[in-house]
Inverse folding.
């Protein structure tokens, strides 16, 4: 199914999820699998073996033309012209006030061709902003979201699983691919070879890959991956465990940690802003001023010293006084204690600072720690 209505959208894999008994949730206007069995079991599978995700709600924007690199240097806060062909870069698109429209990944596929991947709920807004910003550049911005599916294999057994679907001659390409790199790789899909874009990127804190595939081949690829991963413990995984995985890895979620009201410097993303690059870019003046002024509040990691978890919008306290607010929080399945991300007054952002989270009238002890909470062994 690849239907779209004014209120609800469905990925090309929707019927596959139904067959697997998935529970669904709305995310960015899309009906997405929340979990298939147990979100805890899916979380542990990604950490210990592998999980298969449908990420087809993400956007895919192609930027093509002689000015592609120069245009992206203007449209985004990073220096996209510095990316080598075959590599990727995490960046932000901001408004003139320095507010974050979205965080995204850009892949350079050729000297004059990039794939920009925004988040699901922001894909249309990013496309509109980039189209507006492209007026003075020799580029074409194409929205390929409706025709493109995206699946991800995440976990320590990812390479072994993909090797079952690629020719022996290309096995080394998969195994040797660096983090934040991408290559066109031949997969066996529905009994026939298909060249697909394979990227060593992800949002779980584990090793893994993301595969861009035309909608018409998505179901065959999904089925082939599940079959190939049976012996390696691959399980379908939903958005519930994706959220707990990314939280353990200290990765921000738009709408929680990032928004138009948040500066990159507040969110700890200052290094993403390339103020040293030449030329104007959208938001430069505001971002320069924000960096000079400093942040009144900063995003921090909080480790629970008790057993109860904080949740989004719960107040953060110091000696009973509100000094911040939780943006994401839950028990960590991997670490065995509660973790949270929160914006707190800058004076309380140092690791080791003891704070409390107001859990519906009861102060629960937490401690500021460095991020990420969890980091995989290499």
């Amino acid at each position: 199914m690849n239907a779209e209505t004014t209120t609800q959208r469905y990925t090309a894999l929707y019927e596959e999820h139904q067959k697997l008994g998935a529970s669904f949730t709305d995310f960015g206007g899309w009906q997405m699998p929340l979990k298939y069995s147990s979100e805890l079991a899916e979380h542990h599978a990604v950490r210990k073996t592998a999980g298969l995700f449908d990420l087809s709600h993400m956007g895919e924007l192609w930027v093509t033309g002689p000015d592609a690199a120069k245009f992206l240097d203007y449209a985004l806060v990073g220096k996209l012209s510095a990316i080598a062909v075959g590599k990727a870069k995490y960046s932000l698109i901001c408004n003139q006030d320095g507010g974050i429209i979205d965080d995204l990944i850009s892949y350079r596929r050729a000297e004059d061709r990039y794939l920009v991947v925004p988040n699901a709920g922001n894909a249309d807004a990013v496309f509109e902003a980039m189209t507006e910003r492209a007026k003075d550049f020799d580029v074409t911005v194409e929205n390929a979201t409706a025709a493109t599916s995206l699946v991800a294999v995440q976990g320590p057994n990812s390479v072994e699983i993909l090797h079952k679907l690629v020719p022996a001659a290309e096995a080394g390409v998969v195994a040797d691919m660096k983090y934040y790199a991408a290559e066109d790789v031949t997969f066996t899909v529905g009994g026939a070879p298909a060249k697909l874009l394979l990227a060593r990127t992800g949002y779980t804190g584990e090793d893994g890959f993301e595969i861009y595939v035309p909608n018409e081949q998505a179901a065959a690829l999904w089925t082939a991956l599940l079959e190939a991963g049976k012996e390696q413990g691959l399980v379908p995984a939903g958005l519930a465990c994706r959220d707990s995985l990314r939280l353990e890895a200290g990765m921000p979620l738009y709408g929680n940690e990032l928004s138009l009201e948040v500066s990159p410097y507040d969110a700890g993303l200052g290094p993403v802003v390339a103020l040293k690059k030449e030329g104007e870019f959208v938001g430069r003046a505001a971002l320069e001023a924000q960096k000079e002024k400093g942040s009144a509040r900063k995003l921090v990691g909080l480790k629970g010293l008790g057993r109860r978890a904080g949740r989004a919008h719960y107040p953060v306290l110091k000696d009973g006084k509100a000094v911040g607010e939780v943006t994401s929080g839950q028990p960590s399945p991997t670490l065995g204690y509660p973790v949270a991300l929160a914006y707190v007054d800058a004076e309380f952002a140092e690791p080791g600072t003891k704070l409390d989270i107001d859990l519906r009238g009861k102060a629960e002890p937490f401690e500021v720690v460095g991020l990420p909470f969890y980091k995989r062994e290499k």
